[in-house]
Every structure is written in structure tokens, then in C-alpha cells.
Amino acid sequence: MKITIFYSSIHKTRGNTYVIIDAFAQGARAANATVDIVFLAEKEIQPCMACLKCWTKTPGKCVIPDDMASLLNQFMESDIVVMATPVYIHNVTGIMKTFLDRMMPIIDPHLVKMENGYTGHVKKHQTYPKFGLIATGAFPEQKCCEFVSQYFNRLALELYSDVVFEICRGQAILLKMGEKTPLGPMVDEYKKDVRKAGREVVENLKISEAIANRLDQLFVPEEMYIEQANHYWDSRISHYEK
User: Fold this and answer.
1) What pLDDT, in 10s, does the model give residues 189-209?
2) Do residues 162 and 129 make contact, with C-beta atoms less than 8 angstroms apart?
3) I need a surface site. Which of 50, 104, 176, 211 has the fewest CB within 10 A?
4) Could you tell me the pTM of the whole model?
């Protein structure tokens, strides 16, 4: 199985999202999958010009000479593509959105009414990869990633595919900060479960209910998280006021 993780944090390996990516990749590789992590922040991806030439003049080929052509090839050659993003203003990062906007070459321009009642595009390719989602947010509740989840589930429908797993993590700032606190053992257990999830996706094309439930558990109560987060920001702000 070939898995490609498209990762859109500007912080790269220093990001909270990468903690999950790394653990998931370890688990998937242990199950003999080939896993490639693409750091989108390192790629040259220009904004879509909406010229529509990839639908008309040069069907399937974008006229912009950057890294996107090779990224689309990698996308289409994968069995599973994992979209990994921190949540910025309740959505994907700008880097991720620019990448997704440039997917028009793999879509047919003609419209069709789909079985689910939505209008979509005629199927251009015989097969598309399955989707996975890794999303992290700094709000205290798990549902801080719900809009991103809805977004990728709708995109998967457009590409005649589906999302086979989601790992969404509220309180994500604790993935790194918690390593140096009494929360360290809890974070370690979480990463172990993510590794198990990676293995399960390769072996079963899904995450078991038991692992999914553990991955959804909060690190700390929401009220405690909010109190500590506000205290942290007050201390940061006061530092610059001196």
C-alpha cells in the first residue's frame, strides 16, 4: 500500500500536527506500507489563476510551471492520501487551500447529478485514492475540527472516493508542551494509539472503534484547558508590556 501524507503546516517537523503524522507513519510502515510525507511548505505552489485552460486548451495539464504537476501525479498514484493540517480560523491552512485549489486538472468540467443529491463533476479517472484526515486545533473540544472534516468528506465525494479515517485532535498544543509536564505519559499513550491506528488503516482500511474512541478522549477537562490557556497568553502579553 502506498500512502502519501500532504502536510500543510508552516512549522514542518516542529508543528503539533507532525507529532500525529510521525506516529501514524510509524504504525503504517510497521504494517509494510510505503509512506511519503510531503511538506507542502517546501513546495512551489502558485495560486490557481482560474483560467480554466486545464479544462479546455490543455486538458488535465495546468499551465503554471511549478511543483503542482508532480504533486498531482503523486496524489493519483497513491492508494491513500492523508490530508494533514492544523486548523486556522476554523479551516485548513492557506498552504493547504492553495494546494487543493490546484486540483482542477484531475477533475472533468462537465456537470452531473450525483446519487447523494449533490451536483458534481463527471468522473475523469477510473479510480481516485482513498482519503484520510489528520487535523489539529488549539481549542479545548474535539469538535474544533468539525468544519475541516466536513470539507474533506465533501471533497472526497467530488472525487468519487471516501474518507476512510479521521484523526482530529483538540487541545493539540499539549502534544508538544505536555511532553515536559505531568501530562507526558498521557501524550505517550496517545502516540501509541496513533501508531496502532496507522497499522489498522493499512491492514483494515479503517481505524477500529476502540482505538478511535481512545483518540477522541480529551487530555484535560475543557474548563481547565481554557483557564490555563488564558493564563499562558496573559503571561506572554505581559512579557512584551514590560
Assistant:
1) 999 999 999 999 999 999 999
2) no
3) 50
4) 0.96
